[in-house]
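Subject: sequence -> structure tokens, single chain

Hey, anyone have a minute? Need the predicted structure for the following. Not urgent.
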Amino acid sequence: MVLESRRGIVVRASSSPDSTDPSDPIAPLRMESPTGQFLSQILISHPHLVPAAVEQQLKQLQTEWDTEQKKEELSASGTDLVLYRRIAEVKANERKRALEEILYALVVQKFMDADVSLVPAITPSSKNSSGQVDTWPSQEEKFEQLHSPEAYEMIQSHLALILGNRLNDSKSVAQINKLRVGQVYAASVMYGYFLKRVDERFQLEKTMKILPNGSDSEGSSIEKAVREDIRPAGDYLAVSSHLEVSSWSGGFGNRIKPSRLRTYLMSFDGDTLQRFATIRSKEAVSIIEKQTEALFGRPEIVLTPPGTVDSSKDELIKISFGGLRKLVLEAITFGSFLWDGESFVDSRYHFVMN
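Reply:
Had a minute. Here:
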């Protein structure tokens, strides 16, 4: 029996054996387009068929696009042309929404394949304001298996810079500003996307035995590139520059020990680094924003005259440091899966701009 909640799809038969509540949502974000709703049903009933269903939907989108292009060539002038352009604009927005939800379905399906449960929406008004983050198993061993050893070493550095001396403290509970937690989550998704993109190239060059000799002298330039270039629009993402977490570059500071992947990054020139630090599609940016809002709600952001974010009126949530660690690991993995999904879709329906 399938029910749709306000935020996400709810399944009576839980998708994960780790889940304790049979009505746990498989994903916090509700998909609303016809394509998204179709894929939602596939996720619930036959998740292993999602890639095939996605290919079918992409073929349909390509057919619609080709038909519109032919109509544009034959379109009349004057009033008819204005009307046609308006219809074409509406259809383009529908395709964008469909592509976003195709990407989201692919990400969710990869979590389900890995038997990793996505954290449900976190509601500060509930008795346990961190939702089920603190009650679910950590799943850290499963997360580790989803990344290469070199990438996971960078992820540990990212965690160390976020949690500080609380890295190994999983039980202590803190009250944290909801906006700040949302910023950490969104920034970690983008970091996971960046890390997967770099690691994919690193693993290829390692296999081909053509890795360059790096240097640790350019750490500050890498941190600057990642901070400045990944600034998409959106309530959580637009204020990511105010996030007081120096881990955006995954541990490029002097406090973090060198790793093979970090040394490899040091060999990049500025232009290459900026390219790797950029999310390729608007659809992927939108998914990051919507996933974060589905988890934490839409924040009330007030900018003070100096240009800083005043979050004094924002809600606080209680969450353990173990729960925060779990959120960050999920976010990084979400970003990694988003890169994979975007690449899969673009190989069949070219929507990523060069």
